[in-house]
Fold each of these.
Amino acid sequence: MARRIGLTLDRVLDEAIALADAEGLGAVTLARLAERLGVRSPSLYAHVAGLDGLQRALALHAAGALKSALQDALEGTSGLDGLRSLARAYRAFAHAHPGLYEATQRAVTPGEDPELSAAFLEVVEVVGRPLRKRGLTGDDVVHAVRALRSALHGFIVLERAHGFGLSASIDESFERMVDLLIAGLHG
Amino acid sequence: MARRIGLTLDRVLDEAIALADAEGLGAVTLARLAERLGVRSPSLYAHVAGLDGLQRALALHAAGALKSALQDALEGTSGLDGLRSLARAYRAFAHAHPGLYEATQRAVTPGEDPELSAAFLEVVEVVGRPLRKRGLTGDDVVHAVRALRSALHGFIVLERAHGFGLSASIDESFERMVDLLIAGLHG
DNA sequence: CATCATGCCTAATGCCGTTAGACAGATCAA
DNA sequence: TTGATCTGTCTAACGGCATTAGGCATGATG
C-alpha cells in the first residue's frame, strides 16, 4: 500500500504555504494538507509537531521571508526613500502572501520559543535600520519602530478585513499615511 | 427533565462576552457556552443562529459598546484634546474588553450583512468627528480616519500579541504615536 | 541474507458544530 | 377545568477535526 511517498518537511511546508496563501491561514488544517499531499493526516506527525508545530514552522518561515523582502526593499536606498520603500514592500508582501503574512501574527508569549521570538526580532531590526540611518538612537528608535509597525500592520489588517468601507482610494490612503509617518518620524 | 431554564438572547450574549473577555474570542465555543449556562449545546440554537450567528451578535454588540466608549471620550473636549482622548479611550476599551475588541475585527464582505457594516461605520464616524471639527472635509477625512484607525488598531493587536518585545515603555510608545498622528493630521 | 529503523498506514478517542426529532411544560381557548 | 397548541429544552446521531497507539512494509545497514 503506497509506501514511502517521499514526504519531506519542505514538501509539507510548501503545500501549507500554498494553501494558506490561497485560502487563508484558517484553511490550513492537517486534514486538508494531508489530502493535498496524498497522505493520511496522522502521517504528517512524522514531519511536523502537530498543527501547532506546523503553524510555528509557518511563522518561522514567514518571518524570514518578510525580513528578506524588507531587506531587498532597502537595498540601494537612503534615508527617506528607504522608509517609503520599506513601507511599500511591507504592504506588497502582505498582498502577495496573505497567508504567510497572517502567520506572522502568531502570538508568542515572552519566555517560550526564543527561536521564533528572535526571528520576529530580526524583522523589527530591519524596520529600524532606516531610522537609525537618519540619526535616531536608543529608545527613540524603539518608539518609532513601534509606531511604524502599528500603522503598517493595522492598515493591512483593516484592508484585508474589508474594514475600509468608504469609496476613497485605498492606495492613496496608504501613501498619505506613509507621508504622515515619515514626516512625523523626524523627516 | 429540567425544562424552561429561562434562557434568553441577552443571557447567552452576556455569558459569551464574559467568556470572550476572560479567555479570548477563540474560547467562545457553543459547547463551553452551553456548559456555563447549564444547558446542552443544541439548545442554544433556539436563541442564536449557530456559532456564526453568535459571533455576529458579539460583533454587533462590540461595535455599539466601542462607539459609546469613544463618544464618551469625546464628550466635553475640543480639537486636539478630543483626538488624544479618543485614542486613549480606544486603547482603554481594548484593554478592558479584549474579547469584545477582538469581536470588532470580524471581517464582513461588502454586500452581505448591511446591519453589521452600518454598525462598524458608526464607529468610524465617531473617529472622524474630531477631524471634521478641525476643518478636514471630504476625502481628507476618510484618509485621516484610515491612518488613525490603522495606527490604533495595529498598536493594540501588536501589544496583545506580545509583539513589542523590547523593554521600552509601551505606554510611552503609545503616547508618542498619538503625538505623531496628531501632529501629522494637521495639528 | 538477516536485522532494524523509519515512514506510512488503520483504528480509535474525544472535542466540536450542527440537524432531526421527541417531549414536557407553559400558554391559551373553550 | 380541560384540552390543544406552541416552544424551549432534551437525546441521538453525523461528520469534521486533532491526536495517539500500534501495525507493517519498505529501504537501509551489517
Amino acid sequence: MARYRVGIETRERILAATRRLLGEVGMEGVTLKAITDQASVGAGSFYNLFDSKEAAVFEVVREALESVDPDPAGEGNDTLADLVDAFVLFVTGSTPVARIYLQLAVGRGLTDPVIAARVLRSHRRRVERFADAWRREEPGLDAPEAEARAQTMLAALTGLGLTALLDPGFDMRAHAHRLLPPQPATSVSAGAGRRRRSAHASQ
Amino acid sequence: MARYRVGIETRERILAATRRLLGEVGMEGVTLKAITDQASVGAGSFYNLFDSKEAAVFEVVREALESVDPDPAGEGNDTLADLVDAFVLFVTGSTPVARIYLQLAVGRGLTDPVIAARVLRSHRRRVERFADAWRREEPGLDAPEAEARAQTMLAALTGLGLTALLDPGFDMRAHAHRLLPPQPATSVSAGAGRRRRSAHASQ
DNA sequence: GCAGAAATGGAGCGGACACTCCAATATGTA
DNA sequence: TACATATTGGAGTGTCCGCTCCATTTCTGC
C-alpha cells in the first residue's frame, strides 16, 4: 500500500492530523471523521492506507514513544544535568508529544496490561540511563543506591512534568534543577559561560 | 429521587458497580450496560436515580477526589512522614480509587480545562500541606524554600505512585521513604518500637 | 388494606461511530 | 499513448451506546 508519491503524502497528512488531534482531544476523543476532515481525505482513502483507525493512532504513539526513549546508540556520556534538561525540554518543548505519551502511559497503561508492559520497559531503560549518570557523577556509589536515586529522580521529573502539563505557568525547569546534586563550589563562578556537555542530549 | 429504602440501596449498588468498573476498565470504557449489568438493574431504574451516565461517573470521581484531598479539618500537626505514608497508603492500599484519580487527573485533565483546574486546585492544597510540615520539621526554612521542597516531594510521590500502579512489584514505600530528610541519629535505635504520630493521617 | 407515589425492567429510538464498497480518476511504466 | 494499478471521495452498512417510555410491581404512611 502507498506505492505512489501521492499516496505517501496522503499518509503523512493523515499521520500529522492524527498526531495533532491526539494532542488536542486526547486518546479516546479522536474519531475517524475528525482525522479525515483534518487531513482533507475521504474515508476510502484512509482505509486504502491504514488497516484501521487504531493502526494510525498506534503509529503516531509509536513515534511519540520512540522520541522519549533513551537513545540506544548514545555513548553513555551524558551528565545528570543533560538528562534532566532533556526531560524538561521534552515536556515543555514538544508539549503535544508529551501529552500523548502521558495519556498513553497513564490513560491506557492503567487498564491495558500490554501498554503497561511497554511503558514499564521504556521506563526501566531510562532508569538505567539515569543510574549510570549518577555513578559517573559520584563514582563511589554502589549499584543499588544509584538505581534508587535514579528511580526517585525520574519519578520526581514525571510528577513535575505532569504539573507542568496541567499548569502552563509552572516553572518546571527551576524545580527540576533542584533535583541535581549540589555543584562543587569551584564551578559556581563560571556564570553565563557555563555550558552543558552536549547541545541536545539524546533522550 | 430515591425516597424509599430500596431506591437508596439501588443507588449504592449502582455507584459501587461504577466504581468497580472505573478501576477495571477505565474512564472511557464504562458503558451503561456494563454498569446496569454489574448492578443487576434495568436501564429504567438507573435513570430513575441518575440524570445521566456521566452523573454517576462524576459522583464516583468526586468521592475519589475527596479521599485524596488533605483533610480540611486537619489540625496541621502531621509530620512529613505521616503525609508520605498516607500518600503511599492511598496508592498501594486503595488501588482502584488511586487509578480513578490518576486517570482523571491525567487522562482527562490533559485535555479538559475544567478538570485540569480542579485537579490543580487540590494539588496546590496538598503542596501547602506538605510545605507546612516541612517548616514544622525544619523551623529555619523560609516559605519559598519550603514550598519548593513540598512541590518536589509531591511530584516524586506522584511519579512513584504511577510506577507502582503500572508495576505491582514496585516497592513504593521504600522509595518514598528516601524522600524524607535524614533522621537525627538519636531515634535510629528505636527499631520496631518506632511509631508514626497518628495512626491514620488525614490526607 | 388502601391509595398514591416510587421503583423496576426492558423494548426500542435516534444518533454516532468504525468501516465497506465502488465508480470515477490520477499515476507511473513501457 | 495505452495499460495496469493505485488513489480518491462519499454514500451506505452494521453495530453499539446513551437514553426514553411505559406497563407492571413494590413500597410506605395513614
